[in-house]
Amino acid sequence: MSKIEEALRKAKSERSKGDFQSESNNKNSHNVENISFSRTLQTTANSISQVVPRESSVKEIALMSEDEILENKQLSELKIIYSDMPDLKYANVYRDLRTKLLQKTQGRNFIVMITSCMPGEGSGNVALNLATAFTFDESKTSLLIDCDLNNPKIDAILDLQSDVGLTDYLERDDVEVGSIVHKTGIKRLRMVPAGSSRETATEYFTSVRMRELLEELYLRYTDRYVFLHAAPIVESADTRILVELCDYVILVVPYGQATKIRVKAAADAIGSEKLLGAVFNEIPGIPRTSKKTKRN
Questions:
Q1: What stretches in the chain show pLDDT beneath 70?
Q2: 243 exposed, middle or buried (CB, 10 Å; 0-12, 13-18, 19+)?
């Protein structure tokens, strides 16, 4: 019996005793206030937490090894936020998102997916910066998985040289989790690139191995936050599958480019229980008016 099957059996037994009655009473009409890691993985995590100690992993995170760290100038060129950047307004946008996520989950770690309503809108940068915002806290660590298998971009942004990634792990039993998790040059931020093979993406995300991977990454640190970057949801069956594997979804909307119909279609595909909110990007700056000099 697999870990997931065993966890499901135990969770069903617990539910039969009425242990989860209090959870169902805490839902409001718009959003699920308590974390719902996924309909399968939530019960897995709950069951494992009864056996495996889920103590704070702050000490372990402090001991995480790092290689070459990107300097602030390099981060600016890559449009990646950092804690003491001059333009705090840009960084604070992601700090606010971080705060809302932590409030929503009452401080517990989670899996959140970042998708978009149309292609070519920079959702990869949004996912990367949101994951980076969590690393501002030295007691937390982030892991970003590029699930946009047909059009991966994040490893290119970070100039990550990787031989193996997500699809390699899902295809081959001899590939271990540790070999696909790579350092990024950002403290406490790790990344899993898309991988080398991307021919049968839908089958990847419906596999038990994908669920077990997320379970292991989620449970590795109690203070780790997992982010999935996915293809535009309206155009991708893969992304609609991934909705079921995460707690919440953030929708990226390019300002002035997406129609209301398209945004609504994306929101409907996600569902009200999982949709945390929308992020508008590519908002044009307000032009400055030049001051006229007074004539004497």
A1: 1-56, 121, 198-202, 282-296
A2: buried
pLDDT in tens, 190-226: 999 999 876 656 688 999 999 999 999 988 888 999 9
Check if the beta carbon of residue 70 is closer than 8 Å to that of residue 85.
no
Going 262 to 206 to 113 to 227, the CA torsion angle's sign is negative
Which CATH number do you get for residue 196?
Answer: 3.40.50.300
Rounded to whole angstroms, the Cα distance separating 166 from 64 reads 22
Cβ–Cβ under 8 Å, residues 284 and 254:
no
CA separation for the pair 66, 184 (Å, rounded): 9
Helix (H, G, I), strand (E, B) or coil at 79: coil
94: domain range? 57-281
Per the CB < 8 A criterion, the answer to whether 270 and 251 are in contact is yes
- Beta-bridged to residue 16, according to DSSP, are none
What three-state secondary structure class fits 15?
helix
Residue 67, in any domain of the structure: yes
**Predicted local confidence at residue 63, as pLDDT:** 76
For 239, the token pair is: 């992304």
Which helix or strand (DSSP H or E) is residue 225 part of?
strand 224-229
Q: Is residue 41 part of a domain?
A: no
Domain assignment of residue 214, yes or no: yes
Instruction: Count up the domains in the chain and report the number.
Output: 1
Q: What's the pLDDT score for residue 64?
A: 84
Q: How many residues does the chain have?
A: 296
- Reported as half-sphere exposure (CB side, CA atoms, 13 A), residue 183 has a value of 11
- Asked if residue 154 is part of any domain, the answer here is yes
User: Under DSSP, is residue 8 helix (H, G, I), strand (E, B) or coil?
Assistant: helix
